[in-house]
Task: inverse folding
């Protein structure tokens, strides 16, 4: 078994059944993804549309491609035919653009609402209040080609585990609130995407259903 495969197996072995692993393969070559695939991995996360599309074309078709990056509206059309889940939707405008491209592709695309839970200024996402207003306004109900499938967030990059835990706990509580208010009967609203290489065990304790792990599997990235 290769190092990549060993690490995937090690992580998978420790996951509760309710948690799925997204192998974040951004900036790594096709061969690394093929290795992971041969080790049984089927969900991959990418942050650039063009790079993801090249990898989609080169690799087996039973892979689930998750887009985890910041999205530009003019790129949506390239992934609309195949993307399995878009994690980082942080405006109504983006949601309605995805809806438009999904309709053209004849699909319903699952999306996660990205919530800003970290202290850092630079991370994208709705504030919880912005997200509440967007949902309360209700226009999203007209968007028949997107399915709001849950929430996504990134914790502050810090050594302070109590802080990370608080941030993930905030996201979990927000998920519950939104579920009860808008998606009570909707079984497809079910995902809490949180947890990366350095903080995923805490994210799992706080209720994550999708962990997004890159460097721990594939090694350091050369940006
Ligand atoms: C790059 C990235 C990850 C993976 O980060 P690692 O620390 O390498 O595990 C997870 N989520 C998002 C949104 C990312 O951009």
Result:
């Amino acid at each position: 078994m290769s190092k990549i495969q060993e690490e995937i197996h090690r992580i998978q072995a420790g996951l509760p059944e309710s948690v799925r692993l997204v192998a974040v393969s951004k900036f790594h070559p096709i061969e690394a993804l093929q290795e992971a695939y041969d080790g049984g991995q089927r969900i991959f996360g990418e942050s650039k549309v063009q790079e993801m599309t090249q990898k989609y074309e080169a690799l087996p078709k039973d892979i689930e491609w998750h887009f985890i990056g910041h999205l530009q509206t003019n790129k949506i059309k390239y992934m609309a035919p195949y993307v399995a889940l878009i994690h980082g939707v942080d405006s109504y405008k983006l949601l309605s653009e995805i809806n438009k491209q999904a309709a053209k592709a004849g699909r319903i695309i699952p999306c996660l609402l990205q919530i800003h839970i970290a202290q850092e200024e630079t991370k994208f996402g709705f504030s919880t209040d912005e997200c509440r207003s967007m949902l309360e306004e209700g226009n999203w109900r007209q968007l028949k080609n997107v399915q709001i499938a849950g929430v996504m967030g990134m914790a502050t990059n810090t050594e302070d585990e109590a802080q990370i835990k608080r941030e993930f706990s905030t996201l979990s509580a927000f998920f519950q609130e939104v579920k009860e208010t808008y998606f009570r009967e909707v079984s497809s609203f079910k995902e809490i995407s949180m947890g990366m290489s350095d903080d995923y065990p805490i994210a799992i304790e706080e209720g994550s259903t999708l962990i997004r792990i890159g460097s721990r599997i594939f090694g350091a990235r050369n940006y």
